[in-house]
Design brief:
The protein is mostly helical. The protein has one domain. It has five helices and no strands. The protein is globular.
């Protein structure tokens, strides 16, 4: 059984590199979400942001949310857990 892994392209800006781990994690999270590799919940956890903060970051970068029932369930779970 051959399983091929698709390569992904991620670019980290020099500004993020100079700002440290938090900025790098946020930039990676945005790109992984935009490429539909991470769910909203996965991406916001990587970025270490709340639901509302990550929503604002996506808006700032003009990235539309791809939202389904699984995302809704994860958001409800996160809200109930206090994230």
């Amino acid at each position: 059984m051959n399983t091929f892994i698709q390569p992904i392209n991620l670019q980290i800006s020099p500004d993020s590199l100079s700002q440290g781990e938090s900025a790098i994690r946020q930039e990676l999270a945005i790109q992984l979400y935009a490429q539909n590799i991470f769910t909203f919940a996965q991406a916001r956890h990587l970025a270490n942001l709340s639901v509302w903060e990550f929503q604002q970051v996506l808006g700032k970068h003009k990235i539309e949310r791809h939202y389904n029932e699984a995302d809704l369930a994860q958001d409800i779970e996160a809200i109930n857990a206090g994230f």
